[in-house]
Design brief:
By secondary structure, this protein is of the alpha/beta class. It folds into 2 domains: about 1-10 and about 15-25 and about 55-95 and about 135-190 and about 210-335, Ribokinase (UDP-N-acetylmuramoyl-L-alanine:D-glutamate ligase, 3-Layer(aba) Sandwich); about 345-480, HUPs (Rossmann fold, 3-Layer(aba) Sandwich), CATH 3.40.50. The protein is about 40% helix and about 25% strand. It contains 19 helices and 18 strands. The chain has helices spanning about 1-10, 55-65, 80-90, 140-150, 170-180, 210-215, 225-240, 280-290, 295-310, 320-335, 345-355, 370-380, 395-400, 410-420, 435-440, 460-465, 480-490, 490-495, 500-510; strands at about 15-20, 20-35, 40-55, 70-75, 95-100, 110-115, 120-130, 155-160, 185-190, 205, 245-250, 255, 265, 360-365, 385-395, 425-430, 445-450, 470-475. The strands form 3 sheets. Strands 5-4-1-8-9-10-11-12-13 form a 9-stranded mixed beta sheet, with helices on both faces. A 5-stranded parallel beta sheet has the order 16-15-14-17-18. The two termini are about 30 Å apart. About 45% of the residues are buried.
Length: about 500
């Protein structure tokens, strides 16, 4: 775990090439509170319709959330669903240049009908699929391979997402793997539910789940020793593929059989499962991201387990951002308290307090070198309401703002210190330039900052005020500042700040 957490503190962005079955997911939400008068079936009164990238496109979204630059390679039809899918990928900063248009086949659409009782507790009632499973033509396959060759040199990793919809033919898979091997780019495969994995031969790793492994090996899990049976299945699959096998075992975590034939069981933390949709995509994204950051198979699977575990706690597919996975792993390791929350969790906590008539207070900062002035501000902030949520920056953003020598204390240490303060009820990590998005989701009643800022300089101030809240500027505690601490420590920038402008700039850069 130490190596994994250290890697997260020094996380590197990467480029992923995603190949596979691209789909558009459609969710039709409605109220299901009565039966039809002419048949014993529920009536769904449609209230809203939303669409989102699905299949391999959802994998692209998951990878982007883990700080990947993603290039999508696959097939869409010449139809409105295809146009919508491309637009949504582009809006999510995913490069759709590798998507080939095939006018002879429709864009795969998964339309789910979601019923609510008393406007809550969404449940899928059924799903309608619009698709073709016919193998793609040689012409389309050639176009896909041309896109692979055009982008392979930029890729750190290739992910094949095979839903057995006709795109990932044996010939195409083998050609993609050959091209990747020529450029020393690893290939990870989320396999289809098929009877043989020989078409993935040469892949760096495959990630079947229990059911997929049973189909591909002809073996069945019984009530015996699951790990022993998993090892036997993994051996069979490795003989077909030749690479690493990562067999996911839901609540039991995953079993890794590496290239040397060594087995490692990586357990996971039990989760409250709400919806398993998208968990496989999130697992593959996590595995790819960790491997692109040079982590071992064991640590990569540990990271992927955490990402997929968070995915099953939400309804539908939702990309899990890196900072949320990081916070989860810190909590699992015991290095931070349960005060560390995802933004969604903090927003729900805020809603619960507000629904009882309570007041939610929000403040943010780097909190790199915590001193008495910070504690003063946080105590004063807590006095403004019932729940104090503190947002802090990622290490990457601290470096961006304050220079390559910062932060002095990495995120893990900063979270531990903040969580140890009695005034602080919850801590969230935000990866953006400002906390605007976080504030918009939490919707606090009171926004607190130090009085060195004017109200117009405080991100989110206008939003909070427009929602009926207020902004409070806390006077700085005299003689207590990061500047004073760094000066006492002999910070070289202070020593070399010979002019008033230099000193003012130093104070401005280090006192926030």
């Amino acid at each position: 775990m130490d190596t994994l957490l250290q890697a997260l503190d020094n996380w590197q962005s990467f480029t992923a090439l995603v190949v596979g079955d691209f789909m558009l997911d459609q969710l039709l939400h409605g109220d299901a509170e009565r039966l039809a008068p002419d048949a014993p079936v529920p009536v769904l009164q449609i209230r809203s319709e939303v669409s989102s990238p699905g299949g391999a496109a959802n994998l692209c979204m998951d990878l982007e959330a883990l700080q990947a630059s993603v290039i999508a390679v696959g097939v869409t039809g010449e139809d409105s669903a295809g146009h919508t899918l491309r637009a949504q990928l582009k809006d999510a900063n995913i490069n759709p240049a590798g998507l080939v248009t095939d006018p002879t086949r429709p864009t795969t659409v998964k339309r789910s009908y979601v019923g609510l009782a008393q406007h809550r507790h969404p449940q899928k009632m059924f799903r309608a699929d619009f698709e073709s499973r016919a193998p793609i033509s040689e012409t389309v396959a050639a176009s896909i391979l041309a896109q692979i060759r055009a982008h392979i040199q930029a890729a750190d990793i290739v992910c094949i997402e095979d839903y057995n919809k006709g795109v990932c033919t044996p010939e195409l898979c083998r050609a993609i793997i050959d091209i990747a091997q020529e450029h020393s780019v690893p290939v990870l495969v989320d396999p289809a539910r098929i009877e043989s994995y020989t078409k993935y031969h040469g892949a760096t790793a495959i990630t079947p789940n229990r059911t997929e492994a049973e189909v591909a090996t002809g073996k069945v899990f019984d009530n015996g020793d699951t790990l022993s049976q998993s090892r036997e299945m993994a051996d069979t699959l490795a003989s077909q593929v030749g690479g690493c096998v990562v067999l996911t075992l839901d609540r039991m975590g995953a079993l890794v059989r590496d290239e040397s034939g060594t087995f490692t069981h990586v357990p996971t933390v039990a989760r409250q499962v709400y919806d398993v949709t998208g968990a496989g995509d999130m697992f593959l994204a996590g595995l790819a991201a960790a491997r692109a950051n040079k982590l071992s198979w064991e640590d990569s699977v540990r990271f992927a387990n955490a990402a997929a575990g968070l995915e099953v706690e939400v309804f539908g597919t939702r990309p899990i951002p890196l900072n949320k996975v990081h916070a989860s792993l810190l909590a699992i390791s015991g290095r931070v308290s349960t005060k560390v929350r995802s933004v969604d969790e903090a927003a729900e906590l805020a809603h619960q307090v507000q629904s009882r008539g309570g007041t939610v207070v929000f403040t943010n900062g780097c909190f790199d070198i915590l001193h008495a002035g910070h504690v003063w501000l946080l105590d004063k902030a807590k006095a403004e309401g019932d729940l104090l949520i503190v947002a802090t920056n990622t290490d990457e953003k601290v470096r961006q703002y304050k220079g390559p020598t910062r932060p002095v204390n990495a995120l893990e240490q900063r979270l531990r210190v903040l969580c140890g303060l009695a005034a602080v009820d919850a801590v969230v990590v935000f990866p953006h330039d400002t906390p605007m998005e976080t504030i918009g989701r939490i919707k606090p009643d009171v926004l607190v900052k130090g009085d060195e800022y004017t109200e117009g300089e405080i991100p989110g101030a206008a939003f909070v005020i427009s929602n009926g809240g207020r902004v409070v500027r806390i006077p700085m505690l005299e003689g207590e500042s990061t500047t004073a601490v760094l000066k006492a420590m002999g910070d070289e920038r202070w020593k070399t700040a010979t002019t008033r402008d230099d000193r003012d700039r130093f104070i401005r850069d280090t006192s926030r």
